[in-house]
Design a protein that fits this description.
- The protein is of the alpha+beta class and 630 residues long.
- Helix content is 23%, strand content 20%.
- The strands form eight sheets. Strands 13, 14, 15, 18, 19, 22, 23 and 24 form an eight-stranded mixed sheet that branches.
- A hairpin with a 2-residue loop joins strand 16 and strand 17.
- Helix 11 packs antiparallel against helix 13 and helix 16 runs antiparallel to helix 17.
- It is globular.
Length: 630
């Protein structure tokens, strides 16, 4: 999540099509202010808690469904604006959140890790063939009629699995196994089957169909025959959400760029017609409108929360106590799945030495994670060492201890310098006293990008930079940038004009690291946080495959990390699966594909009348039934 998004508020609805729900803008908490409100498809972990699956136990204990009335305007904030409303191509969280207000998805996952059918419900007899059954009351807008299985199969087979990813769909890799498309076939008008090549007992919980959206065949068929990617990208109906019909709780009204995005209550919302959901769902949603205000300055976002100008906003750790003492604001501290890490650019326009494991280890040894967690994050964070948080049942302590870089005996100039000297062996880099020199004999200077929308993220970059300079003798140049600009110009990559790549996995991995590069060069970044997927860890393999669709850093594994992920994914026995994940996380901790820093908690402030959010991991999955109790 983003620093920029991290302490913003009310915007984030964790959803698989936010690659930056995979990537997460900035820090670790709220991509677009992760208050959990827009959390309908939030990744959650396995843990015991006493709340009901709706995450609104306290509210339901004291309020009846009849106390929910449609009233008021819900206002959240974002630190930077969305890039587009065409979800096929958007990977920033703000864009995803804008679209999600007008479109639900296949299904959500509740607090108890049960599938909650939205548009569809999955079923399986063998854990390999999954039958997806759509509701019969789903209607497209724009005259495209009923949503059917034909829409889904056409989209998956012709766009997601289109030859050479002609459409440039960001998550195309999700729909292939061992380079082959996953078979998808229509059964009848409302049913289709997904036939996995291997058993996968957790498939419904993975960000493949979980949280997946859809487009009408009637739109796509205009572009599929000629593989007109640019036409699909610019399609007016898609970019103005004219096709959303009754498929989401709100309807698009206006988008004032860099100012606000406005939606109004959808009077035809399909969920109101669904029986057996409970009285609290009978008149959803319970707000007349939902508006996202774009407020770049963190201090201005916090003032808006203090003054009651916005319903909800993310809170930086240093301000947590102030808002906890404010009787008009309810503060929620929520576990979240995003790891804050020091990302290294291993592509051709980054620093060449980041391709060496000892060098990557050296950088994270230089950083004092414990001090960062206790001082900068006021105890609302803990050191991270690998691609899984401690609260996950898949986290295995054994074997990680020798790779706890950045803490104890593995922190400081000694361990950092030792590993750096090992990493530069055989190169023309060398130390002159305490300063690392490049092959030209000049001191090494590297860039480190932070979010311009988060003071906390900027301070993190400054402290990390100071420790690298002190412990490794490398000069660090801090650059601040809006999260959406970083995504567009630094994370996104493609071959230079006139060159072709042998493969592409989408805008964040346009090909081999020596061919596909970003528009602007960069060395390191803390702008994006990465999703660890505590419930289904194998989903995070996208960061660790050379062709992973989220691998914008150009990392190439030196061990069998992708193969271990695949073996764990198809293993039914949980104890065996846990041991395999343990091997995965040990290898990741050793290789340090990025410098693991911290796992943070989301801190969110909401105006007291808002009923619904909770301190649970999946808070927000049922955001449609939140309401104001005035």
């Amino acid at each position: 999540m983003s620093p920029e998004d991290q302490y913003q508020g009310g915007l984030y609805r964790p959803n698989r099509r936010d690659l930056l729900h995979v990537l997460g803008v900035g820090g670790a908490t709220a991509l677009a202010g992760c208050d959990g409100f827009l959390g309908g498809n939030a990744e959650q972990t396995d843990r015991d808690d006493d709340s009901d699956s709706g995450g609104t136990a306290a509210a339901d204990a004291t309020e009846t469904a009849r106390s929910r009335t449609v009233s008021g305007e819900y206002t959240s904030v974002a630190g930077s604006d969305a890039n587009s409303l065409n979800w096929l191509y958007t990977n920033d969280t703000t864009s995803g959140a804008y679209v999600d207000l007008t479109l639900d998805s296949a299904w959500a996952i509740d607090n108890d890790q049960n599938v909650f059918p939205l548009w569809a419900e999955p079923s399986t007899e063998d854990g390999q063939t999954y039958r997806i059954t759509l509701r019969d009351n789903l209607q497209w807008g724009g005259g495209y009629g009923q949503m059917t299985a034909e829409d889904w199969v056409y989209m998956i087979t012709n766009v997601f699995q289109g030859e050479g990813n002609w459409a440039g769909y960001t998550n195309a890799g999700d729909w292939f196994r061992q380079g082959e498309p996953i078979p998808v076939e229509q059964v009848d008008t409302l049913t289709f089957e997904i036939r996995l090549p291997e058993v996968d007992p957790t498939f419904p919980l993975k960000p493949i169909m979980w949280g997946q959206s859809c487009l009408p065949e009637g739109i796509l068929e205009q572009y599929v025959p000629d593989r007109d990617a640019e036409g699909l990208r610019q399609d007016e109906e898609i970019n103005t959400l004219q096709y959303t019909g009754n498929l989401g709780p709100y309807t698009y009204e206006e988008w004032e760029r860099e100012s606000q995005y406005v939606t109004v209550r959808n009077d035809d919302y399909y969920l109101r017609e669904v029986e057996d959901l409970g009285e609290e769902w009978e008149d959803v949603p319970y707000f007349e409108s939902y508006t996202v205000q774009v407020i770049p300055e963190e201090s201005s976002r916090l003032n808006a929360l203090r003054n009651g100008e916005v319903t909800i906003a993310g809170i930086p750790p240093r301000n947590a106590q102030e808002f906890q003492d404010n009787g008009d604001i309810d503060v929620y501290v929520q576990p979240q799945p995003f790891v804050q890490a020091l990302k290294y650019n291993m592509r051709a326009n980054g620093w060449e030495l980041f391709r060496e494991i000892p060098v990557r280890q050296a950088f994270v040894c230089a950083v004092d994670k414990t001090t960062l967690a206790e001082n900068l994050y006021r105890g609302f964070a803990e050191p991270a060492y690998t691609m899984q948080p401690r609260f996950s049942k898949w986290y295995v302590e054994e074997g990680i201890q020798e790779y706890t870089f950045g803490t104890g005996d593995l922190q400081g100039s000694g361990p950092a310098r030792t590993r750096m000297e090992r990493g530069i062996e055989g190169t023309q880099y060398e130390y002159d006293g305490e300063t690392l020199l490049n092959p030209d004999g000049d001191p090494v200077t590297l860039s480190l990008y932070a979010s311009s929308a988060s003071n906390t993220n900027q301070t993190l970059a400054e402290l990390v930079g100071q420790q690298i300079e002190s412990n490794l003798g490398i000069s660090i140049q801090i650059e601040t940038i809006p999260g959406n600009t970083f995504q567009q110009q630094y994370a996104s990559n493609s071959p230079p004009e006139g060159e072709d790549a042998p493969w592409s996995s989408g805008p964040f991995n346009g090909g081999p690291r020596d061919v596909s590069v970003s528009q602007e060069p960069w060395d390191m970044s803390v702008v994006l946080g990465f999703n660890t997927y505590p419930r289904t860890p194998s989903s995070s393999v996208t960061f660790f495959r050379e062709r992973g669709n989220a691998n914008y850093t150009g990392y190439v594994p030196e061990s069998n990390i992708p193969e271990l992920y695949a073996e764990a994914s198809r293993t039914v026995d949980e104890s065996e699966r846990r041991e395999l994940f343990g091997q995965v996380f040990r290898q990741i901790a050793r290789e340090q594909p990025f410098g693991f820093l911290l796992m943070e908690s989301d801190i969110t402030g909401a105006q007291d009348p808002l009923v619904g959010p909770s301190d649970t991991f999946a808070s927000g999955w049922d955001y449609q039934r939140y309401y104001f109790d005035r």
